[in-house]
Amino acid sequence: MGGRLWLASEEGRGSTFHCTVPVEFVATSTPRVTPSEKILDIAPAPRPLHILLAEDHPTNQNLAIAVLQQRGHTVRLAANGHEALAWYQRARFDVILMDVQMPEMDGLEATAAIRALEQQSGQRVRIVALTAHVLSGDRERLLEAGMDDYLGKPFFPEQLLAAVEPLGKSPDDVAAVPASGRVCFDRAQALARAMNNETLLQRLVGTFLTSLPQMRAELRDALLRRDSDAIYRAAHKLKGSAATFAAPICAELAHELERLAGAGDIDAATRNAPQLEAELDRLTAALSELKWLN
Questions:
Q1: I need a labelling partner for 193 at 20 to 30 A (CA). Which of 70, 110, 160, 202 fits?
Q2: CA 253 – CA 104 distance, rounded (Å)
Q3: Which residues form the Response regulatory domain (predicted)?
Q4: Beta-sheet pairing, 50-54 with 74-78
């Protein structure tokens, strides 16, 4: 390696070993999303976009990044509103996909901060809200907060692309597609959300199974502390994951827990939690036993 090794010894005091190795200094790089391998058959976009994805959920991150990158877009990732705001001030983006529910600073706060900065610059970036709440009145609330559009979660790849590359579509055209049926896990529906690509679905399942123990631990801890806000956030995260995998029972139970926490009824939330835990066990078993075609 071109280095040098030597010894210096002094009687009565011991020996000192010296070693030098020449190395090349490597500057730290700006964080970025690693390009995905080509696992989706998606035609390139007419004009590649520079997109900021503000999303804290690993499963949603992986799905969105895979779809957008295969379309030819560049994606930067922010895990909360503070990171999204920092990225906005650092680089120019064509579109910002902004999750509404995020830790530290939520999507509404981050959007308000970005719009305030735009008053000084005179430029406006397109911001699309990502939300599991697509109910009556939500569209108006999001648009009033400064969002240009919204996309309900869970979403299909074509819905994501329609929101990022609008072609005269209204927000209602990209509303969430609710899970149907009473099965623990609807593989066909989940595969459709992964654009019928087994490799992508397998990756998403792996991410979900890896992150699930932490999500369940967060919920249990919040229940023990009787922290209604923390219960709400944990249930919201579990609801989004369950809906992504077309697990309607899990999604409904998590939604009910979220509703109870939002109403401050911690006793009822504590009583309902074991039902969700049991259904999560069923979902975990179903996903773990999946047989893949590839």
A1: 110
A2: 26
A3: 50-168
A4: parallel
Write the single-letter amino acid at 105.
M
Please report the pLDDT score of residue 5 as a whole number.
57
Give the Cβ contact number of residue 158 at 10 Å: 12
* Sign of the alpha-carbon dihedral angle for 67, 70, 73, 74: positive
Mapping DSSP onto H, E and C, the string for 225-281 reads HCCHHHHHHHHHHHHHHHHHCCCHHHHHHHHHHHHHHHCCCHHHHHHHHHHHHHHHH
Domains of the chain by range and CATH?
A: 50-164 (3.40.50.2300), 187-289 (1.20.120.160)
- End-to-end CA distance of the chain, in Å? 43
With a cut of 50, say whether residue 254 has pLDDT above it: yes
Rounded Cα–Cα distance for residues 157 and 163 (Å): 10
- At 168, is the pLDDT very low, low, confident or very high (cuts 50, 70, 90)? very low
| Mean local confidence (pLDDT), 276-290 | 84
How many Å separate Cα 92 from the centre of its chain? 21
Q: Rounded to an integer, what distance in angstroms lies between the CA atom of residue 131 and that of residue 128?
A: 10
